[in-house]
Design brief:
This protein is an alpha/beta fold. The chain contains 17 helices and 24 strands. Accessory subunit of the DNA polymerase alpha complex (also known as the alpha DNA polymerase-primase complex) which plays an essential role in the initiation of DNA synthesis.
Length: 686
């Protein structure tokens, strides 16, 4: 701060008006007279200025820390600011207008002092502004309009710097509170200091600051639901993250495969795929009471039961985008049950399917599907299947009396949130208006939020960073929503297509914690399982339904001991069967390898296959009450066995899903409490 006795006057006027110095002034006194318009009355003002170490620097003409010895702080010569402006801008100003030249000098000197820039830096900013204009190949001249543009640019840069300081103070203040054991759960700064690059200030003219007492900070209301999500401790986060630098050689596989051309590192995926086959084989053993499994590559005289993975033959695999067909069908066993050998697979004409859904009339096959077959290898070089043993179904989630089962409402929306024509996020704004009108207890938002494949982002036609776009369009708007509905909860699940995410692979860890500054905004991994008031959810952003529909091969077969769970399910509905594949395979993405032409949509990393399991190790094998999978296929909500499956479609289609969950009655599956409506939004009235 300036010494209290020195009252600074308008420099833009003083430097332009003729200065009449009193007689017998020293050089230092003349400098002070030029700066303040009068001589200081305090005798020790020079000493105080040296202690403050603040002065008008000869290069910046603005108050700053000198960083020099006190005896030299005042002795530095200060040239006339107007001469500095003329030095760099004389060639750009109109020669015929003396009045405009005088006005420009006033503004130029004011810019130097107000925005803490030197004359040279001011000229460079002017030069940058000139060349960033459309169809400019030379530096533009000085006009009132261009002066306004320069001032706007300087103001933006100053506010950005202030925001960085404010954000750093807020973070350090929060760390201090946590270190003292003060709980921040349910509290949020009303001033919400933004992150780098956004404008944010503490209220001026008051005592408000990052050190505002904790009791004066507005607190978030208690949520209407009890949320139980994935573990967020440090070890769990590390397991979900991709840390290739820290992997050990022993964690990689030593095998090889002919599918290496298809965007997957099979050296890593082979043991993971083998484990998946062995795990499902144990379920088949228990479900059908099988004592021993056979090897599909070994010749036998009697029928054996085998478990393996559906694959393409080597010729079709190397060809790339080839759809599965009966001529290219192969079965690959695990290394434990059949040495990992791949053999051609053929079905007998009278093939049967046992314990499948009633009315389905066959079985769906696709690359990566784990199947259990009964048949034999008669020495002809292929395995002949006479019966398909359907994988056991997941049991419904039991109703837990210990869990709170109160009613709640929920809205589900999935990206993209803006059209390909622009980055205005108009569809998302319409959805926000609907959310503020309905005030649901829970809002689930699924990425992509800032889509890396958007034409304008791919071409670099953006004015701010993707992180800033996310904060402006999503985080700020979600905080505004929480202001109107303080007891609501927001869940954010990313997408492989999100440019703001550090990992573009599936499965995917949660977004960086820096994006969430409110305890009511939860960041979830992709895919994710969680519960709300005892109702279990399984959510993924990858369009696995479209991928399954593209790769599916339906083999018709005679039904034996069919199972009917839902009397309203005819067994022939395509969308229901696609969702059933996900549940039966117990995987959010059971396809391997992904479709060649769609592999960029998933970027599958099978070395993290544990993150794809619907039933992780150590957890009960229960079906989720709600399965949410956004897809480009037509939106729907269907009951699939014991699960309500939802395709909420995309916000760009003006479609969302609304859930209403009734109170628990103490018995029956959780899905019996759920009512779903998926459709187009209507603008809220009023």
């Amino acid at each position: 701060m300036l010494p209290a006795k020195l009252k600074k006057i308008d420099i833009s006027v003083s430097v332009l008006s003729p200065l009449v110095f009193p007689a017998k002034l020293t050089e230092e006194e003349q400098k002070l007279f030029r700066l303040y318009g009068k001589l200081p009355t305090h005798k020790n003002v020079l000493t105080k200025m040296q202690k403050d170490r603040k002065f008008f620097d000869s290069g910046d003409y603005a108050l700053s820390k000198a960083g020099v010895a006190p005896q030299n702080a005042v002795g530095t010569a200060i040239p006339n600011p107007e001469k500095c402006v003329l030095k760099y801008f004389a060639s750009l100003m109109p020669r015929a207008s003396n009045s405009f030249t005088h006005a420009f000098l006033q503004r130029g000197v004011s810019y130097l002092c107000t925005y803490n820039v030197s004359g040279e830096d001011l000229y460079y900013k002017w030069e940058s502004l000139s060349f960033s204009s459309v169809n400019r190949s030379s530096i533009i001249g000085v006009t009132p309009d261009t002066l306004g543009a320069l001032r706007a640019q300087l103001k933006r840069e100053l506010l950005k710097a202030q925001a960085e300081v404010s954000a750093s103070r807020t973070r350090s203040n929060l760390d201090g509170r946590l270190s003292k054991g003060i709980s921040l759960l349910g509290s949020r700064m009303k001033s919400r200091a933004p992150a780098v690059g956004l404008v944010g200030r503490w209220p001026e003219g008051s005592n408000a600051s990052p050190a505002t007492p904790l009791e004066s900070i507005p607190r978030a209301g208690s949520s209407r639901v009890v949320f139980n999500g994935p573990d967020m401790d440090e070890d769990s986060r590390k397991r979900r993250a991709y840390r290739y630098m820290y992997e050990k050689i022993s964690e990689r596989s030593e095998g090889n495969d002919l599918n290496t051309a298809i965007h997957c590192d099979l050296l890593t995926s082979r043991p993971a795929l083998d484990d998946r086959i062995d795990e499902l084989a144990e379920l088949v053993r228990e479900h059908y009471g099988i004592s021993e499994f056979g090897d599909p590559s070994a010749s036998t005289d009697e029928d054996v039961v085998v478990v393996g993975r559906i694959t393409l033959d080597s010729e079709s695999s190397s060809a790339g985008a080839v759809k599965l067909n009966e001529a290219s069908l192969c079965l690959e066993s695990s290394r434990m049950m059949g040495s990992g050998v791949r053999v051609p697979l053929k079905f007998e004409h009278s093939v049967k399917v046992r314990r499948g859904p009633k009315g389905q009339g066959g079985a769906g096959l696709f690359p990566g599907a784990i199947v259990s077959l009964k048949g034999k290898n008669g020495g002809g070089g292929w395995f002949s299947a006479s019966e398909i043993l359907t994988l056991p179904q997941l049991q419904p989630s039991p109703s837990d009396a210990a869990q709170p089962g109160g009613p709640f409402s929920m809205m589900i929306a999935s990206g993209p949130y803006t059209s390909d024509a622009d980055l205005q996020y108009a569809p998302w704004s319409a959805s926000l208006r609907h959310l503020k009108a309905q005030k649901p207890a829970v809002v689930l938002l699924i990425g992509p939020f800032i889509d890396a494949s958007h034409p304008k982002i791919r071409s670099g036609d953006i004015d701010e960073s993707p992180a800033d776009m996310f904060r402006v369009h999503f985080m700020d708007n979600l905080r505004d929503f929480l202001d109107t509905s303080p007891d609501s909860l927001v869940l954010l699940l990313p997408s492989v297509g999100d440019i703001i995410h550090q990992h573009a692979a599936f499965p995917q860890p949660e977004l960086d914690s820096n994006f969430s500054e409110d305890p009511r905004i939860k960041l979830l991994p992709n895919p994710c399982q969680f519960s709300l008031n005892g109702v279990t959810f399984a959510v993924s952003s990858v369009d696995v339904l479209f991928h399954l529909r593209k790769e599916e091969l339906v083999r018709r077969a005679e039904e034996v001991e069919p199972i009917s769970i839902n009397p309203d399910d005819p067994g022939t509905d395509t969308m229901t069967n696609l969702c059933r594949y996900v549940l039966q395979q117990r995987s959010f993405y059971p396809i391997f390898p992904p479709p060649f032409d769609l592999s960029s949509e998933v970027n599958l990393d099978v070395s993290h296959i544990d993150g794809l399991k619907l039933c992780p190790k150590g957890s009960p094998a229960r079906a989720p009450d709600v399965l949410v999978i956004p897809s480009r296929l037509k939106h729907f909500s269907k009951v699939v066995d014991h699960t309500v499956a939802i395709n909420p479609s995309f916000v760009t289609k003006n479609i969302m899903a609304a859930l209403s969950v009734d109170a628990a009655n103490g018995h029956g599956p959780g899905q019996s409490r759920i009512k779903v409506n998926v459709g187009r939004l209507l603008e809220p009235s009023g």
